[in-house]
Amino acid sequence: MHRRVFVVAAAGALALACSTTPDRPPPxxxxxxxxxxxxxxxxxxxxxxxxxGTDACNDLAVAGNVVTAAEIxxxxxxxAGGTIVSGIYNLTAVDIYVGVSGGGxxxxxxxxxxxxxxxxxxxxxxxxxxxxxxxxxxxxxxQTQTTLDYTIAASGTAIFVTVACPDDGQTYTQGYTATETTxxxxxxxxxxxxxxxxx
Length: 199
Hints:
The chain has about 200 residues and is mainly beta. It is built from 1 helix and 11 strands.
């Protein structure tokens, strides 16, 4: 599954560019780009931590619990926009909207992600740093830690993302809904909604 988990994530090639393989705590993601968090033996434990490699895009520490993607019947809700609050956020939910009939996606991914958002107060531009640990609920015991840096520009209910590190220049657009304590990023291609909660 090609995921853009924020930040979202870009495509799988980006994950390889800034990835390190941690000493294996339990599985946690699918090797493509998206936010991350501390590795642990269960979603409620911080467990063993991982550290970025020398080619890492940032030194953001992963925090928060392991999140398992949930399959949600029905259509993805529309984004509402809002004011993005600067700060450190942890991934707290991943919802995959599968339509009225439901079903049909691969075994749920488990993810951990932390993002650092710096949003200009007088303009819609800002930056996001991300660390993501991905794995899968499968036979593979390995995990991948990825770091990414983005520049962002919000307009209406859309957030325009450019990958700054690795220096790829890839751009894409996601929907977003921001409150005082949460940032929800919606991928219109995969019908996934990633919810981040302010620390």
